[in-house]
Sequence to fold (187 residues):
Amino acid sequence: MSDMRDLSLAELRRNYLADSTTGMPIGGFIAWAALALVSWQMGDAMPAWIAFTAAAAPFPLSILIDKIRGAPGLTTQSNKNPLTQLFMQFIFVIMLLIPLVIFAAQTAKSLDLLILGLAIFAGMIWVPHGWAANDRAGLIHFILRAVLCYAAYLFAPEPHKGAAIAGAAALTYVYAIWAMKKPGDAR
Fold:
């Protein structure tokens, strides 16, 4: 590949999509479905670190899934793409927002609020991914996730509210697996 600075936005988007992973929504589904199950079983007795683990797990799980499938995953060349750099920087932005969720959950003494905030903030990563891949499914995934998680928070019965929120987040990954553009779609 040539110097990334010389490529058009359309070429950068094609390269980003070609180098992207289909392992991310699979990893996300595994992590959030596991959180839903653990939260269902443990309720408010669940340690908060489990929710943090679920929110952080999709990215490393996607790397593992890529390795198992023999996919290249992130490469030195793909890391030079400014759209990949934007995606990675947005992960850092989300990390900077997480203390807000922690403070709110501590003040309210609510594990459910922690799960809700983590689910919505972690889902924000689909917005820059979708834009970089020129794929509306990223924004739709985030909107669907926010609406379903808020609905679970507002309407699920109290002992299972956290599990319902995590389950809603997991469900949105089914949409992402089905709808998002695949690396082979890069043209």
Summary: The chain has a mean pLDDT of 91.
